[in-house]
């Protein structure tokens, strides 16, 4: 009997960011073997030349897989700008080969990318989404935004997924509470708002905690800001870390702080919830669909005082921090467990295959 085949096109699993993390997570599920998934990398970190070579190489491997493997479904993972253009090319090639396409939109600012695009690119975006057999959005908020862009597209909501872990051990006695920032260091993720809030908390006597900043992006700017604020005794800026080290870092933390200005459905929050961390995040994008006042703490965007107050609360109130983290883990088990989500993709593939 012929095996079911799925062809995935996404960034390399060695790249930084949520899409690579999602692909790595799904590779460890039964979906990978059940559909004999082949993953083709069409992007990797590096210079423009590196990215062009990666796409050219990936494009050749993709077309070869279409011709020789004859997949039952193609699953394209896209963000914005160049990522979408690359996946649009692949989507239209799939139409030539009459292979069903699932277009998976990960970009947190996809609606802004659309609104800023010139008219011909907007037409391409609408046609590509409408021509896909299914468009995957990361939550109801993103379903609505994509429906406004392409009303005729078939859009379904499937959340990102993680595997629940053992809950973190909470500090006792004189141990410090470990607060973690995990993401691309910069204004969009709210890194510098966090540092300003942290300085305010420490200035009010908040040295019971330590903060770790981990991620790529504006690493030196963050270190300079730490020096300017004189909080170097309680803040460590690690910069980018290998993805293999992330679980260990999460397991040694107690709070995740991610005061972003814009988000889709950040894997960092899901991974923190899966470890039973208390999450403090801004109420933007798809974040309110992940956490509410039972299983997290939401703060307004760019509000240093509110963020400092939220951090002070979860650092000093151990019972609240533990309760919120436990409820976050329960929500992961109920709604975002990878064992639930991979079955939704299996069902979706069965629906769209011809």
UniProtKB/TrEMBL annotation:
GO molecular function, one term: glycosyltransferase activity
Keyword terms of this UniProt record: Glycosyltransferase, Transferase
Record domain Glycosyltransferase subfamily 4-like N-terminal: where: 40-160
Biological processes per GO annotation: carbohydrate derivative biosynthetic process; liposaccharide metabolic process
Alphabetized InterPro entries for the sequence: Glyco_trans_4-like_N, Glycosyltransferase_grp1
One Pfam match: Glyco_trans_1_4
Name of the protein: Glycosyltransferase involved in cell wall bisynthesis
Lineage: Bacteria, Bacillati, Actinomycetota, Actinomycetes, Mycobacteriales
